[in-house]
């Protein structure tokens, strides 16, 4: 296997499937199946999930609500998704732990790095909920931060597109996909990989990011086995 410990980042929106809002149970179950496949190979899996299918801080601002208040609501949204994913993974027979960056001890462990690493070593899937616990950040930043902290080999950013393109493939038919690109080139070409905070964290700490299509069955396993899937961004 190419990687031993990975951090999988899923967006909240990816959980919507064909729905307009919330969580599609079929999609959740499909993701759980994919994740189980790589766990069965002995890969240590940590997951960060977004909350955009339920709430985003910027939405609150548009409605006249204080941004910080909205961001905390967004972090709570990630907990709802994390709990849903936790249940789906357990339904497939995986052992899981949910750790929250905001204390809510009735439903999740607090985030404790050493404990998270121990869970991973014991083969449990660890889900990091509530983002970084701080407003003005995103779950991409949370994913980068946690991945660095637990010394993951790579961040796998599951999206609905199969990698990073020279231009938006939906608008420009001549756009081509990169198999790999350096952080520096991605930055100088203005390509969107993750938000700048997350991107910089990864670049400065030499943590590669692979952007790939999570909705294509088998992709996750292929990636882990070292097959060329998606786009890898590295130094
Ligand atoms: N959020 C935050 N701090 C964090 C992570 C998330 O304030 O460390 C809030 C922010 O309002 C964000 C929302 O939670 O809009 C949902 O997260 P995100 O937008 O990253 O979810 P995704 O786009 O991946 O679904």
From TrEMBL:
Q: Where does UMP bind?
A: 51, 71, 132-139
A matching Pfam family:
AA_kinase
Which superkingdom does the taxonomy of this entry point to?
Bacteria
This protein's GO cellular component annotations are: cytoplasm
GO biological process terms, semicolon-separated: 'de novo' CTP biosynthetic process; UDP biosynthetic process
Entry's Gene Ontology molecular function annotations: ATP binding; UMP kinase activity
Give the chief site where it resides: cytoplasm
What are the UniProt keywords, alphabetically?
ATP-binding, Cytoplasm, Kinase, Nucleotide-binding, Pyrimidine biosynthesis, Transferase
Localization terms from the record: Cytoplasm
In terms of HAMAP family, this protein maps to: PyrH_B
Assembly description: Homohexamer.
Q: What does this protein do?
A: Catalyzes the reversible phosphorylation of UMP to UDP.
Q: What is this protein called in UniProt?
A: Uridylate kinase
Which organism is this protein's natural source? Taishania pollutisoli
Record lineage = Bacteria, Pseudomonadati, Bacteroidota, Flavobacteriia, Flavobacteriales
The gene it comes from is pyrH
């Amino acid at each position: 296997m190419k990687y031993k410990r990975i951090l999988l980042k899923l967006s909240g929106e990816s959980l919507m499937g064909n729905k307009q809002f919330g969580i599609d149970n079929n999609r959740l179950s499909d993701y759980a199946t994919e994740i189980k496949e790589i766990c069965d190979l002995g890969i240590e899996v940590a997951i960060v999930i977004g909350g955009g299918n339920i709430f985003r801080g910027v939405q609150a601002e548009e409605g006249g609500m204080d941004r910080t208040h909205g961001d905390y609501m967004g972090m709570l949204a990630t907990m709802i998704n994390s709990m849903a994913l936790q249940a789906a993974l357990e339904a497939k027979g995986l052992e899981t732990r949910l750790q929250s960056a905001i204390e809510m001890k009735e439903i999740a462990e607090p985030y404790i790095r050493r404990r998270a690493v121990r869970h991973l070593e014991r083969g449990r899937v660890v889900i990091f909920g509530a983002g970084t616990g701080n407003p003005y950040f995103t779950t991409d930043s949370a994913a980068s931060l946690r991945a660095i902290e637990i010394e993951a080999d790579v961040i796998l950013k599951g999206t609905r597109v199969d990698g990073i393109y020279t231009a938006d493939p939906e608008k420009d038919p001549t756009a081509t996909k990169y198999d790999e690109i350096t952080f520096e080139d991605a930055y100088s070409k203005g390509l969107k990989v993750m938000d700048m905070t997350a991107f910089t964290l990864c670049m400065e700490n030499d943590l590669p990011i692979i952007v790939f299509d999570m909705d294509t069955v088998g992709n996750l396993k292929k990636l882990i086995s070292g097959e060329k899937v998606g786009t890898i961004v590295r130094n």
